[in-house]
Amino acid sequence: MTNPWPMPYARDLDALAAMSTAALWSADDFPEVPSVSADPAAGRYELIDDSGVYLREIPSSAPSGAPVTLYVHGLAGSSTNFDALGTLLAGRTRGYAVDLPGFGRSDPPSGEHYSIRRISAVLAAVIERVGADVPGGVNVVANSLGGMVAIDLAVRRPDWLRTLTLISPAVPDLRMTTDRGADPRLGLLLAPGTLAPAVRRLSGISAADRALGMAQLCYGDPSVLTEHDLRVAEEDTRWRLALPWVHTATVRALRGLMRSYLRAGRRAFRATAAGVRVPTLVVWGTRDRLVDPRLAAPTAEAFPDGRLLVLPGVGHVSQMEDPLTTARAVAALWAGVPGASPASTMATSNA
Q1: Contact criterion met (CB below 8 Å) for 143 and 151
Q2: Is the pLDDT of residue 266 over 50?
Q3: What is the pLDDT of residue 36?
Q4: Locate the AB hydrolase-1 domain: which residues (predicted)?
Q5: Within a 10 A sphere around the Cβ of 253, how many other Cβ atoms?
Q6: Tell me, what's the pLDDT at 1?
Q7: 3.40.50.1370, 3.40.50.2000, 3.40.50.1820, 3.10.450.50: which CATH number matches 14-344?
């Protein structure tokens, strides 16, 4: 298998699960967990700044007046990354999963601008379309790169958010050490002239290798994926690889993320996190190969109203690998918000 950025297996950090502080809703109150390869929710395009942004509306059984939730994927992902979690929470919310600019079925952003702030502005425009007028604000659930975008959004538009859930957010970590799976070469992407070589390298990877490689990189236990799951992922990957901007979007978005790590003062991560005024849940897997699980507790502590769920044996995408436990923590977070509906105020537990 070809891997554009080879990364070793992350060290065993399952003991970090003992640091969890988040409450969990009863597992009995959720439907059956859907397959990773289940048919995705239907979608539509929204025209934002002259670019098409693809938005999936997850079928919901939530009562009238239920809060709206926006699901935001990570680097090289898509809105389908949240189909399982969104389905489990569909009785509590009206959910929308977005393809970030340049990913999934969304067009590249105007001017090829992939900065965190620029993508955050697109999310703000999406919320204006689906939930800016919802009393109490919108829940945002975001993974990896999407987590950093969601934090920026939470600070810029605090009046729009109800809660924030960050799944393995790609928080700054300049310790390019191989013991956590970091690749020191990633820093080279900030140098001039590196875009074309990086795109060429990505272009040389087949759809099958890419689908398998992403599974091995993002899952703590890739064996939970069936052969059918991998075939479906390969087919979707093949469709996306036919888009002319697919590799450029990945590299430019990664550059935008890394540039955000160099911010100082009030725009630095900790200062930004300290400005988030809504209840915040941080979810992390102990086998995350992309973002060091040892950052989980400090990240949760950076938010004024933060709580933490660390999942043993899980990788970078807990919303896909362990959607039930993730949904239980999200439901408990939502139930604790002042003004939550009577149907969502049942007692929670840490069991």
Answers
A1: no
A2: yes
A3: 86
A4: 71-328
A5: 24
A6: 37
A7: 3.40.50.1820
Averaged over 143-165, what is the pLDDT? Answer: 96
State if pTM tops 0.85: yes
Report the pLDDT value the prediction gives residue 343, as an integer from 0 to 100. 42
d(CA 267, CA 122) in angstroms, rounded, equals 19
| Residue 67: closest CA among 27, 87, 96 | 96
The three-point CA angle 208-214-220 to 5° equals: 130
Q: CA 107, CA 39: separation in Å to the nearest integer?
A: 22
Q: What band does 347 get if pLDDT is binned at 50, 70 and 90?
A: very low
Amino acid identity, position 288? D
Predicted confidence band of residue 277 (pLDDT cuts 50, 70, 90):
very high
pLDDT > 70? residue 20: yes
143 pLDDT band (50/70/90 cuts)? very high
- Predicted pLDDT of residue 191: 54
> Cβ distance 102 to 253 under 8 Å?
yes
